[in-house]
Amino acid sequence: MITANENKEVKKVLKAEIKVNSIGKPDLTALPETARRIFFETLLAHIKELCAEEDKKSSKQD
Predict the structure, then answer these.
(1) Structure pTM?
(2) R_g of the chain computed on alpha carbons
């Protein structure tokens, strides 16, 4: 079950804008299921960290 705070975090992450540069043509479907899951979990964790840092910066400026 997702808590209200986690739900708020997810909504922030979904609204986050990031720039991704790729070299070549990555094919995530070529990865095994486990590696794909780890890739997306890691990506989500980093996006959450960036959002938290932005929140911290904006709260210090207020």
Answers:
(1) 0.55
(2) 15
Q: Which two tokens stand for residue 57?
A: 């910066």
Q: Which residues lie closer than 8 Å to 2 by C-beta, 6 or more apart? A: 10
Shortest CA distance to 35 belongs to which of 24, 43, 47?
Answer: 43
Quick check: 50 and 16 in contact, CB under 8 A?
yes
Per cent of the chain over pLDDT 70 is 89
Which of these, 7, 12, 8, lies nearest to 47 by C-alpha position? Answer: 12
Rounded Cα distance between 40 and 57, Å, is: 26
Q: Which tokens in the block code for residue 44?
A: 């989500």
**Residue 61 tokens, joined:** 């400026």
Q: How many residues does the chain have?
A: 62
Residue 24 region, left (φ>0) first, then alpha (ψ -120 to 50), else beta? left
